[in-house]
Amino acid sequence: MKSYRIGQIVPSSNTTMETEIPAMLRLREQVRPERFTFHSARMRMKQVNKEELAAMDAESDRCALELSDARVDVLGYACLVAIMAMGRGYHRQSETRLRSATASNQGEAPVVTSAGALVDALRVIGARRIALVAPYMVPLTKLVIDYIEHEGFEVADWRALEIPDNLEVGRHDPARLPGIVAGMKTSDVDAIVLSACVQMPSLPAIARVEAATGKPVITAAVATTYAMLGALGLEPVVPGAGALLSGAYPGEKR
Questions:
Q1: What is the model's pLDDT at position 252?
Q2: Of 15, 83, 101, 202, which shows the fewest CB atoms inside 10 Å?
Q3: Which pTM was predicted?
Q4: What DSSP character marks residue 91?
């Protein structure tokens, strides 16, 4: 039985990524033989605004080095909006730079950003038009929409929950999400991004929203888990985590 070390670069106020990703991989352990351990490094951030996000992103190289000391097998950058706030396509630059940082420490590991994972996941499921829920203030939500649309998708409907404090984002009740989606136009979209943020809890609501809408539902955390499993060369299957991790999208072995 092989064990993999999962590294995460996490905003200091994030309380969700270290719960939802381990929860999904523990569910996977029930149906597949691999086992996982979890290791984090933190970047300071309390308020979700452009200034704090940029200052936080500058700490990501240090975090990648620290995690490479632990010889993690894959490294996830767990803040979607921090990447998207740095400019269109920035996830590619970030992933390359952080992997180089791990290599410079003789601990090279593949790097997944939640931003890159989300846009890649939309391609994997063949989505073109999407509906999106985000916890951010409207200006940051529009920045996220611009980033996603620049990657070739249309955001047909969206909701910004306007929660500026990152701890409060983590306290948002996922049981509210089905009702929020019910008030959106989803009949003509290909997929629903239930949480465009790794801090806003959503895992318990995924199956309910898929059942209510008949649409595939993904979240930033689900997409990151899919990308991490792919980077490890493992089958991206997690029971109860929605269409992307159902086994219908096996991806390419690396």
A1: 57
A2: 15
A3: 0.95
A4: H
